[in-house]
Design brief:
Layout (H helix, E strand, L loop, with lengths): L1 E9 L4 H7 L3 E11 L4 E8 L7 E10 L5 E10 L7 H35 L30 H9 L5
Antiparallel strand pairs: 1-2, 2-3, 3-4, 4-5
Helix pairs in contact: 2-3
């Protein structure tokens, strides 16, 4: 199964970049492939605009290990063709942002895998037999034990609605 999505990403820019880019949003192209027979998921994302300032390509692959656990491989390429002595600063900023967000991304994938696993245990809302046309059996060791016992929905909500001080 192949999917392609066009995503508008919004975020904050560092002060030094606001004059180069002008707006803190970018169109992202995401191409995904699910191979249920090979038990793999591949995803490639790349920005479509601001590519002269910074072009980011990311590849993520999820596959089932021989022990039945999910193995995630993530690669990224960050390039700038801006010049004027700012190329290295721009690429370094992009790499640092990527490194800072990689664990959060992995936590999100673990959360989704756990939600999928839990949903398989729930009866269907509309009743009737459950039919799977392509069953991708991937497992994950689960979230770290330091998480609260209130469940994955609470964790997911906390990402969007952080506790107020």
């Amino acid at each position: 199964m192949l999917t392609t999505r066009l995503i508008l990403k919004r975020g904050a820019l560092p002060r030094w970049a606001s004059n180069l880019v002008g707006r803190a949003e970018s169109w992202i192209l995401e191409e995904s492939e699910v191979d249920p027979m090979g038990k793999t998921v591949r995803c490639r994302t790349r920005n479509l605009d601001h590519v002269k300032v910074m072009q980011v390509e990311e590849w993520v692959m999820l596959r089932q290990s021989s022990e039945g656990q999910t193995v995630q491989t993530t690669e990224a390429r960050i390039r700038s063709g801006f010049g004027w002595g700012l190329t290295k600063k721009i690429e370094s900023h992009g790499l640092n942002r990527f490194k800072a967000n990689v664990q959060r991304s992995r936590d999100g994938i673990a959360l989704i895998l756990n939600l999928l696993r839990q949903s398989r245990l729930q009866p269907m809302a509309l009743g009737g037999p459950q039919v799977h046309s392509a069953n991708l059996e991937i497992t994950h060791p689960g979230p770290p034990t330091s998480r609260s016992s209130s469940g994955v929905w609470t964790t997911l909500k906390s990402w969007f609605y952080p506790p107020s001080s």
